């Protein structure tokens, strides 16, 4: 069955990584598939557990508030989440089968629902949040849970980032006070060592989880850093240490399930760059992606467009009119970020895209200068 979406609210979009110019859409409680430039879409599956507004989960923080939906696509699999809610679903788009999932509600209104896909030994695995401080790994095909009971970590998971070869993944979350803390995990170590096998990343520890972040290899990732605005701390630093560097590159060490790291992961290098504006708290907002073909970072913002940046921090191209819908912020409940109004990036197909109500998915290629 096909639907005309020209007069309907499309809540989330994601590229089909198998087929160029084809996209997954979420609207009216359904997962749909459409070609770029077409407002008609094929219905793939009904997903009734994904709500448009929050319901009472005990503390009332999300009751009646609009919930942002997010899509995560990997081959025939599509994950749908209430970003700041408690429900998710995994859809096999080849069969239309839907597996409903949920996470326990403990500050879900400020923590993105954690979902990511891994490839391991010929199997597609789903990393999904089941508690505020717990991720589980499931076989996407069978639903078999590959992780078991574990020591509880005082850590709120949020957005996940998976390395290109699935060897590592990051949780862009926070710990109670609250302060942002990125944790890095080895896939193999996590299957038996769980959260205790991860290593915390050394940053300034502010209030900015879900910060811009991306892998640039199976072991190396980059974070966009906030600018330290603590005047008392600044007085203790020498002039050289006060210099602000926006990008920090990290190499994940060998991690095992037996040894819990007792130190922070320090950056291997800091790079000067100024593509992310800082807000009144010195925080950076937006997205980072990596374009392997050009070797450039794709830095996306809500008001300053898209920048293509070398790993040395040089801007080689800019699209000033291509913007995110709004900053990806845990403080912006019900934001339309990654929704129909703003642009997103499809790394497999190297295109920027967004949903336009009257014309369907609109695409923009990366600038022609984005080549090695």
UniProtKB/TrEMBL annotation:
SUPFAM superfamilies: Nitrous oxide reductase, N-terminal domain
Domain of life: Bacteria
Protein name (record): Uncharacterized protein
Protein's organism: Actinoplanes philippinensis
Taxonomic path: Bacteria, Bacillati, Actinomycetota, Actinomycetes, Micromonosporales
């Amino acid at each position: 069955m096909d639907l005309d979406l020209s007069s309907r609210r499309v809540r989330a979009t994601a590229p089909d990584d198998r087929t160029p110019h084809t996209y997954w859409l979420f609207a009216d409680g359904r997962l749909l598939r459409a070609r770029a430039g077409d407002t008609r879409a094929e219905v793939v599956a009904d997903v009734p557990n994904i709500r448009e507004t929050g319901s009472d989960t005990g503390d009332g923080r999300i009751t009646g508030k609009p919930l942002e939906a997010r899509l995560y696509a990997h081959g025939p699999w599509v994950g749908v989440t209430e970003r700041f809610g408690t429900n998710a679903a995994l859809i096999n788009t080849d069969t239309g089968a839907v597996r409903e999932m949920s996470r326990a509600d403990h500050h879900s209104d400020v923590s993105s629902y954690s979902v990511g896909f891994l490839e391991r030994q010929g199997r597609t695995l789903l990393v999904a949040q089941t508690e505020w401080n717990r991720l589980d790994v499931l076989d996407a095909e069978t639903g078999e849970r590959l992780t078991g009971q574990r020591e509880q970590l005082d850590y709120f998971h949020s957005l996940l980032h998976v390395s290109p070869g699935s060897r590592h993944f990051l949780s862009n979350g926070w710990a109670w006070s609250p302060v942002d803390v990125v944790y890095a995990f080895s896939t193999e170590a996590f299957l038996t060592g769980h959260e205790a096998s991860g290593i915390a990343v050394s940053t300034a520890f502010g209030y900015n989880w879900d910060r811009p972040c991306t892998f640039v290899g199976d072991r190396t990732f980059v974070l966009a850093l906030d600018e330290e605005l603590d005047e008392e701390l600044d007085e203790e630093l020498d002039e050289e240490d006060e210099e602000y560097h926006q990008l920090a590159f990290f190499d994940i060490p060998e991690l095992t399930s037996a040894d819990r790291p007792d130190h922070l992961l320090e950056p291997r290098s800091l790079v000067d760059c100024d593509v992310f504006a800082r807000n009144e708290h010195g925080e950076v907002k937006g997205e980072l992606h990596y374009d392997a073909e050009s070797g450039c970072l794709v830095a996306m913002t809500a008001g300053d467009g898209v920048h293509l940046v070398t790993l040395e921090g040089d801007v080689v191209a800019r699209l000033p009119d291509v913007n995110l819908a709004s900053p990806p912020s845990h403080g912006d409940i019900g934001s339309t970020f990654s929704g129909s109004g703003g642009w997103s990036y499809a790394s497999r197909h190297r295109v920027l895209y967004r949903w336009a109500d009257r014309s369907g998915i609109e695409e923009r290629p990366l600038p022609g200068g984005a080549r090695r």
